[in-house]
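TASK: fixed-backbone design
INPUT:
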């Protein structure tokens, strides 16, 4: 089986065909899709998608690119929603993590004061929420690995995934030592992505999970087209080629890694 640990299945780019797209991915061998929220405005939508399909699960969080328009009350809404979910066993079978949260210092405006400080505040407060409820986190780490790690060392959440990882080998090892898995997806399929491919081939297989980030980060064969969770098995085959492994072993091991770091998936 293949597990897509990061897919924005509710995205507008899918044109309201989210369930159809998930069904197509299932026919390609994708047995689970994790749908991270990005803002309280889509908390209900990702939860509803996860309830409608037994192979879909969700996470709740405030994405760093949505932090500029976020308010303190949104953090309270996140905490209250998670507290409510934790009180209902039926919800727990679909809800797996706090995410997508993190820091984005790639977008120029976001890395300058005061938005940089606001990003860090929202990231830290969401780490505290994950810690308080004993939940893993799905991390956005674009050009921000060291700052992400600094706060993780201070506010220990125990586990999570560094989504779309593109840091150094040293940074990768630091995440692994903190109990994190590293997410690899479409970017790995481009031959010019030398650093990502080097990491994918050299890191311990026990530290790697697969993702699409659909509709974003399409693999090389889609060029500028919209990405889909159905592409995950072919992305996994690229990882298998890079590591000299069989696709079956990559599917089995990366899925085990996802289940290890997102234990609520075990309930299904």
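OUTPUT:
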């Amino acid at each position: 089986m293949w597990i897509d640990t990061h897919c924005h299945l509710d995205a507008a780019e899918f044109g309201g065909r989210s369930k159809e797209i998930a069904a197509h991915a299932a026919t390609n061998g994708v047995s689970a899709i994790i749908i991270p929220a990005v803002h309280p405005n889509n908390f209900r939508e990702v939860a509803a998608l996860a309830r409608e399909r037994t192979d879909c699960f969700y996470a709740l969080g405030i994405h760093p690119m949505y932090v500029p328009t976020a308010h303190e009350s949104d953090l309270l809404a996140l905490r209250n929603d998670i507290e409510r979910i934790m009180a209902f066993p039926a919800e727990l079978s679909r809800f797996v993590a706090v995410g997508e949260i993190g820091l984005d210092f790639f977008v120029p405006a976001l890395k300058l004061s005061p938005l940089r400080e606001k990003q860090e505040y929202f990231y830290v407060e969401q780490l505290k929420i994950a810690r308080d409820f004993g939940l893993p986190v799905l991390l956005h780490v674009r050009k921000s690995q060291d700052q992400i790690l600094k706060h993780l060392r201070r506010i220990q959440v125990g586990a999570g995934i560094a989504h779309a990882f593109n840091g150094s080998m040293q940074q990768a090892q630091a995440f692994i030592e903190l109990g994190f898995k590293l997410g690899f997806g479409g970017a790995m399929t481009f031959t010019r992505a030398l650093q990502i491919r080097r990491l994918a081939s050299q890191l311990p297989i026990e530290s790697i999970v697969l993702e699409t980030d659909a509709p974003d980060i399409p693999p090389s064969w889609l060029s500028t087209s919209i990405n889909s969770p159905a592409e995950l098995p072919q992305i996994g085959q690229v990882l298998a080629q890079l590591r000299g492994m069989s696709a079956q072993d990559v599917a089995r091991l990366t899925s085990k890694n996802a289940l290890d770091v997102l234990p609520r998936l075990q309930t299904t």
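COMMENT: The mean pLDDT is 96.
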